[in-house]
User: Which sequence fits this backbone?
């Protein structure tokens, strides 16, 4: 499937490229990338690109594909299609499956299911066996089998000794460890952010300090263990952003991600008791949201990750306190980022591409993408300002649990190109 994008804007922050080009993708390779005209063949589709942007393929480093074990929510096949529909060419799946990704056989299973797809699936394996926070998983062996980073995501490693042991054990190999920062002793049976709103609604709260305590502990442990690489998942509070900013200024090898819902929604949305707004970390205050946007603007935040968390309708259609946490995000992330960051005037397109492509790629030590003649085509094509509405019927994820259905967004994914395949978004 060959395509020629005529006069498209090409932005690649790593190569400091921002120019108008004629871009020809043929047989999975970039055949032409220049302002010069090209003599395309009859097998190539001509696409007017004057309102589009081409970027290195977007990467979502925090995705719950649910398989194995929870195929009623999502499968590797449906998750990959949802990723392509949302403009992502690469994703990283989380280890809270059943069984957990804590042994080579599960990694091999995921690899076999992810073969020959447009979306490249990378794997995050568990730090501890069965994600129980007790005994370390065979991290080095799993790394050799292809796991590119390690986290017990969905649960926090509560015990400081265990976390220190993991940092010490992986220090020589410089393996990336990531944490879901949550002091569970402070959040048991929570339903939302602890605040005036939670008191008014009569819902058990998750105090912001529960996230910040673990983040602060881990920052200190990472520094103590030789300035170890460390990644903080889905930060959601002003205190967390402040702590990360200070530690980075000290020279620590830290990175962090934020989810689109945390810079676009606040806890007031829960007044209607809609379970599609129930997630972990929960929606926070306006002050927290503004701090996240400031962290995005000043570089404290490294990347945007969807924390795509599919759940079935019957699981979410229960009393608010009993509903599982999480929303899907693969197909709304690009639109939300462009709407609430770029079109809101907070950042430019180069920064959007850094947050969703080049920075996550650097964090995960993935190969740098070059967009030039004879290079492999790994591209996300998007319209930076197209108005659209997220419709339930256009979602390719197996689950539909998102509060953004019916939302008006500005900026839209159009094509994902990777592995000699192209996907035209149906959003």
Assistant:
């Amino acid at each position: 499937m060959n395509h020629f994008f005529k006069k498209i804007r090409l932005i690649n922050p790593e190569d400091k490229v921002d120019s108008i080009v004629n871009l020809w993708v043929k047989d999975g390779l970039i055949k032409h990338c220049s302002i010069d005209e090209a003599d395309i063949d009859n097998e190539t589709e001509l696409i007017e690109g004057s309102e589009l942007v081409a970027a290195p393929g977007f990467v979502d480093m925090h995705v719950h594909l649910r398989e194995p074990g929870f195929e009623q929510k999502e499968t590797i096949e449906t998750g990959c299609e949802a990723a392509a529909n949302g403009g992502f060419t690469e994703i990283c799946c989380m280890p809270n499956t059943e069984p957990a990704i804590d042994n080579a056989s599960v990694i091999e299973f995921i690899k076999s299911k992810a073969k020959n797809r447009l979306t490249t699936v990378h794997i995050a394996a568990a730090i501890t066996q069965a994600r129980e926070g007790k005994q370390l998983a065979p991290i080095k062996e799993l790394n050799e089998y292809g796991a590119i980073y390690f986290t017990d995501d969905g649960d926090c490693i509560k015990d400081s000794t265990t976390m220190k042991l993991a940092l010490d054990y992986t220090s020589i190999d410089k393996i990336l460890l990531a944490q879901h920062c949550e002091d569970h002793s402070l959040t048991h049976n929570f339903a939302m952010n602890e605040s005036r709103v939670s008191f008014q609604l009569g819902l058990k709260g998750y105090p912001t300090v529960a996230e910040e305590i673990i983040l602060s502990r881990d920052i200190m442990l990472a520094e103590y263990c030789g300035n170890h690489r460390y990644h903080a998942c889905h930060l959601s509070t002003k205190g967390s952003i402040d702590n990360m900013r200070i530690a980075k200024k000290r020279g620590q090898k830290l990175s962090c991600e934020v989810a689109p819902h945390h810079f676009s929604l606040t806890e007031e949305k829960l007044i209607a008791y809609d379970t599609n707004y129930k997630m972990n970390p929960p929606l926070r205050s306006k002050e927290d949201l503004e701090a996240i946007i400031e962290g995005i603007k000043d570089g404290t935040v490294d990347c945007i990750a969807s924390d795509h968390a599919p759940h079935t309708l019957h699981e979410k259609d229960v009393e608010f306190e009993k509903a599982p946490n999480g929303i899907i995000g693969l197909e709304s992330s690009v639109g939300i980022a462009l709407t609430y960051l770029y079109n809101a005037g907070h950042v430019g397109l180069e920064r959007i591409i850094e947050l969703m492509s080049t920075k996550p790629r650097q964090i995960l030590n993935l190969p740098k993408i070059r967009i030039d003649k004879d290079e492999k085509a790994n591209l996300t094509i998007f319209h930076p300002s197209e108005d659209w509405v997220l419709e339930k019927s256009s979602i390719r994820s197996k689950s539909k649990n998102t509060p953004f259905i019916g939302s008006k967004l500005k900026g839209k994914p159009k094509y994902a190109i990777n592995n000699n395949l192209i996907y035209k978004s149906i959003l």
Observations:
- The longest helix spans residues 208-224.
